[in-house]
Amino acid sequence: MHVPSSEYAPCKIRRYCIRTLLTLPCGFNFLLIKTDMRNCLALPCGKGISRKDQSRPIDNTFKLPAPTPVWPPGDGFASGIINLGELQVAQISTFNQVWTSYEGGPDNLGATIFEPTGLPEGFSMLGYYSHPNNKPLSGWVLVAQANSSTSTSNPALKEPLDYNLIWSTKSLQIDQNSSAYFWLPNPPDGYKAVGHVVTTIPDKPSLDKIRCVRSDLTDQIETHTWIWGPRKSNDSNEFNLYETRPSNRGTQAQGILVGTFLAQNGGNTSALAISCFKNTNINLTSMPNLQQIQAIVHAYSPIMYLHPKEQYLPSSVNWFFTNGGLLYKKGDESQPAPIQPNGTNLPQDPNNDGSSWLDLPADRDNKERVKRGDLQSSRVYLHIKPMFGGTFTDIACWVYYPFNGPARAKVEFIPISLGKIGQHVGDWEHVTLRVSNFNGELKKVYFSQHSGGTWVDSFDLEFKNGNKPVVYSSLHGHAFYPKPGLNPQGTNSVGLRNDTAESNMVVDMGTGYEVVSAEYLGLEIVEPPWLNYYREWGPKIRYDIAEKLEKMEKYLPMKLKKLLEKLVRSLPNELLGEEGPTGPKVKSNWNGDEVVR
User: Fold this and answer.
1) At a CB cut-off of 8 Å and minimum separation 6, what does 414 contact?
2) 13, 227, 416, 469: which one has the fewest Cβ atoms less than 10 Å from its Cβ?
3) CB 90 within 8 A of CB 76
4) HSE-up of residue 251 (Cα within 13 Å, Cβ side)
5) Structure pTM?
6) Nearest Cα residue to 277 out of 195, 154, 164
7) Which of 523, 259, 213, 520 is CA-nearest to residue 387?
8) CA–CA separation, 438 vs 77, rounded Å?
9) Per residue in 433-454, pLDDT tens?
10) Hey, how many other C-beta atoms are within 10 angstroms of the C-beta on 317?
11) Which residues of the chain have pLDDT under 70?
């Protein structure tokens, strides 16, 4: 009996005893006669149980907990096909598996390449799809066909002239189901590739396999999320697969997510080999109408939990105004003006020059009462905006708090109060729902967290009451998180605490909401006056940071003192109290994409 040591020597010894034929995970069959454990076979089985036989997250296809509703009628929202002008595109999420690596990539679990299937009649493939094995399968790619009005002499889509082999896994010593060959289409002059083809044989794919897109219908991309590479971590000098996105993103940007991947061999990421689509149809007919917006909010409105120890609750802006909110003007601070309902006396010019600001009531008792907000009056203010050329709808759900409480830090395992640092009048936080305009499915949710935030895929969300994602508001700071817990922000040794927990203070953001802006709907939505107030919602406050740090650092070793000081000085100005917070329309995400920390 011989076991090739070069292939099987690295793994642990495994003992097997049986009277009959034994099929080992390594693929060898042996007949064992001895049954006494002292005489059992001790077999070095190189890699033990094959990774091919192990379950992985990608083996599960993610679906929302409840079916998507039947959407109210409209133009193009959730119709399955979106008109981009000279092109029509459809979103495909049915695939045939082409190749799998069982190692490398995120969590060293490998990745899988898929070919889209079930294309609508007349539509062409643009590239394959790749998905990391450490996530449930939830992706999609676009397929396209030219509109009938497209010029036959200069069509929107053309076959490639040839393929260039970028890389092959044939000589790679990794666990894979076969060799893979990564091909880049060679487009005709005036056209660009928007995806790759992968084969398991060295022969070039057929030229009619995919299509290239006319250059004026494409836009520039950038690498986004790492999908796979042969190593456990992303080494940009090696071969890697990346998820891509348009470089220019925002409500006016035309670039579109195609869903294909970028295969990059080497460290040059400045000249990317593929592009994305551009929406030249400025009518945005794929965006939802008001009835459809109401249905989307009803289906996906987040369930918000406040911390059980939260003292500073949200309210409506009108509750704040009518309960003593004051408008101050520079140079006339001694005579603040009561704010009129809906903010009708607030400055309406689009400037933030520091000439006015809002503040709490002047008398102490009323000030303390208003600080604590009024949960019963609270409302969620919705901004509906197109993203990725109108192929997605972002619904930003804004929540207003009259007051933001003091921040807390952790130093090792020790909680430390930051005193008044973190306190400020007026606090705006938001979560954003990203919904596909192809089918109305919720794809991601953005959680704002102080000066940045994070996107969370739907498969990583907690849901209640069907398809409603759960969001947790952190104690005092009101940052949003997808899970309960400490949610530390900083280093392992020193960081901010963002405590979140479930409580009986819960808000369904689909109850008592108000759509305050949807620019693409024109005059159908009238923006409230307070939304166009561009100046601060709270006064500027100066803290003596050195004095505050001295009190906090008294019993800390020097190393931790320096880390704590670095953390405090890195806090955004709103948390340091150096400037009052601004309203939703002044934030960069109002017209742009969300800021990811």
Assistant:
1) none
2) 13
3) no
4) 16
5) 0.88
6) 195
7) 520
8) 7
9) 999 999 999 999 999 998 889 9
10) 30
11) 1-51, 150-151, 267-270, 412-414, 491-493, 543-557, 559, 572-578
